[in-house]
Amino acid sequence: MERSGRRRSFSRPHRSVEMRDRQVEREVMTEFLGSVRAGDGRAVVVRGEPGVGKSSLLDYLVESASGCRLARAAGVESEMELAYAGLHQLLASMVHRLDGLPGPQRDALQTAFGLSDGPAPDRFLVGLATLSLLADVAEDHPLVCVVDDEQWLDRASAQVLGFVARRLVAEPVGVVFATRAAIDDLAGLPEVVMEGLEDADARDLLEASLSGPLDAQVADRLIADAAGNPLALLELPRGLTPAELAGGFALPNAMPLPSRIEASFRRRLDELPEETQRLLLVAAAEPIGDPVLVWQAAERLGLPADAAAPAAEAGLLEVGAHVWFRHPLVRSAAYRSTSVRSRQEAHRALADVTDPVTDPDRRAWHLAHAATGPDEGVAAELERSAERARARGGIAAAAAFLDRAVRLTSDPIQRAERALAAAEAGFQAGAFDAALGLLSVAEAGRLDDFERARVELLRGHIAFAAGRFTDAPGLLLAAAGHLENYDLQLARETYLHAWAAAVGAGHLAEDGILLSICRAVRTLPPDSDTGDPQPLVVLLEGLAALIADGRAASTPALLLAARMFASGDRSVDEMLRWGWLAAAVSIAVWDDDGRLAIAEQTVRTVRESGALAQLPVILTVLGTAALLSGDFARAAAAIAEGDTIATATGSQVAPHVALRLLALQGKENEASAMIAATIEQAGEQSITAANAYWAAALLHNGCGRYAEAAAAAQQATSNTFEPWISTWALPDLIEAAVRAGDVDLAQGAFDRLTETTQPSGTDWALGIEARAQALLSDGAVADKLYQQSIERLSHTQLRPELARTRLVYGEWLRRAGRRTDARDQLRLAHELFEVIGMAAFAERAWRELAATGERVGRRGEAVSGELTAQESLIARLARDGLSNPEIGARLFLSARTVKYHLAKVYTKLGITSRAQLDQVLPGPGQ
């Protein structure tokens, strides 16, 4: 896998002619180098068809990079299945500096490269480690990384390098990718699109490359066919005789240009001696350009030492410290132009000379290509390679090894088992179509009932992951039913996935499917005879009872499940898999103690385990818990961190917390725009839209627009099968409906609310219930209920709810003519709203206070409002004592970039050090 040294360029006829038309592209590269030397991290993608001049532009960049350290890598088509092969190629000369990385990052990269054993590393942790390593190396000299033929990088390397490219900010590191077509992993990065040469330059290059006469009409045709492609201009004339060039007529060729260029190379290869052609085949089949391996394999095939000379003289191959083809299309032509048997012989020779101890995976891959038919020994080697790839975090590589093992397996039972394993790996790698194809292969073989249930399970997971929400719940329900007889734990997990899929699908799910899932759960046998049920079992039974039997029957189990997860006794695996759901359930059952504890514990577990891709979801739950406490700074930090990770990982997370934060802050323009965009994008009936409608209800209630608030809250609470937002928005519906004069609407909402609050019995639940009932009551009854609500909520951490109760109580007291009592409640409400940052509600309280005759001032915005979301988050983490590397690890940034952002924070806040952050930033809970 390792490659060191610089790639040498083949001399090309009149290269100055080829590059003369590239002034703009060269200026971009010059500007790129200037930015890197100045300490500004940059990444750029050079895109264009084969032969258009990408490599020449990269050579120009390398030649111009004086004073910079260079690192190069190139994708190789035959190496796409070897996990992290391209990344190791790029970082090979830097691995001796791994010890300088933070422990988790060092371990992740060492495991990915097979340098040490350990659990499979999260690919984003590998990405962060790569970013840290590049930044560390660049401290000595600016670093320029050049990645050619990116389209052929292995999937793991492509993801990591795309991740790194997006995180470069204040590091003297530049990364240039050359690729033939747009690549998803590089989407959004600046591009240089290489077009063909202008006709005049194309004609000059064509004429300069030929020694004989060239007929004008033939030249016109070649220029038109080449469409300005420099390599085509050099290669297409080689297919014409001197007579045709001088005045004959070349026939049209229907092949696409890359195929025609490859055909030209193939004709040139055919002119070489047979021994040279066989050597070129060996070199093409050996992916890392190791001349020792190539010559050892050639010796096994009986090829002489001078077999490379004719290829070098023809300008097709260079053998030195490494073996280099003039162009990837030469490699392709050398490989494809030979017979299957010749390719098998070449791979067999390479397998024989590849060390089975130091490089077992590449040896297995050669053996697979050398196989002439089913071969159980090779298939078993590929299985072992798949396990090693999985251990390094190379799921896509594991899937590729297993897929090849399936092809080499003749025993129908083993073939089906391997196809199922390959399908599972393909699903984990995101290759859904390939996984479904392998499932068909598995089903055609001899599977036992348990394996067939696993097939159903995988089909359900694929349906859900692929967005086929109509199909997923039913498939998972069927799989769970069949799994009951073989693996009860897996069956329960599958039922839980089915439940979540059905709730998430909402109106898209099959009618009655959610109830069918819950009824099936009710028929499961007891958990155990020990009397100590598993949290997963309690959680599943509670969720099933929620739908099948209602809140009263389900709340005890759901409260117990929440408290079991909040206890701190759960395993890492339990917290990773179900902590987010337990945290959400704790809020659904009004559990003030559990909501924040579970969210914090799950976030901590995710970070410590390195499963960083899961963070955005649990940060949404943490942000929700922070909003309930009125800790808007912490909620904003959760939003910023979640957005940072989602952007880095390419995941999508609905803006649940951001919507409600803007609404509670009273930022009307921003909130309204985001609410409208979210509803339009998500669809009226989705959970995401329901959350947006709830945010709208909060915004309108704060602004005193009660009819609009009631309409939005009705939308938010319309899906009664969804147990979260449909409940959480009920208090807003009751308040808005009462203020709008629709008592019947408010009473119906109150009846629904008590179905959830009464079974819970917590101070949170009963405090909210008392306030809602007070809004519907009069006289002494209302007075007593408002006081009960304040008493209950004062025992919780729910400052916004306490402030809202004081507000509506104060409003009621003023209308009852008790102005002095009203002032006391409204003053406390106003002060608390101001401290929390609920501007619209604070304004509403201020207006009510003014109506009582009291004069009160308004507070200005906190100085931290000048910071961007990311700057605010970094400042908060620095204030809390995290070092720059620790902040970088949290936010997928290098320590140098964190330092860069902190310098901007200090300037904006008018301070000079992190020790002063405590003086200018709001503390926790403010």
From TrEMBL:
Superkingdom, taxonomy of origin: Bacteria
GO CC aspect terms: cytoplasm
Region called Disordered, residue ranges: 1-21
CDD domains: LuxR_C_like
InterPro entries: AAA_16 (IPR041664), P-loop_NTPase (IPR027417), Sig_transdc_resp-reg_C-effctor (IPR016032), TPR-like_helical_dom_sf (IPR011990), Tscrpt_reg_LuxR_C (IPR000792), WH-like_DNA-bd_sf (IPR036388)
Gene3D superfamilies with a match to the protein in the record: Winged helix-like DNA-binding domain superfamily/Winged helix DNA-binding domain (1.10.10.10)
Record field: compositional bias (Basic residues): 1-14
Keywords, ordered alphabetically: ATP-binding, Nucleotide-binding
Gene Ontology biological process terms from the UniProt entry: regulation of DNA-templated transcription
Keyword NADP: no
Record has Nucleotide-binding as a keyword: yes
Domain (HTH luxR-type): residue spans on this chain: 860-925
GO molecular function: adenylate cyclase activity; ATP binding; DNA binding
Official protein name in the record: Regulatory LuxR family protein
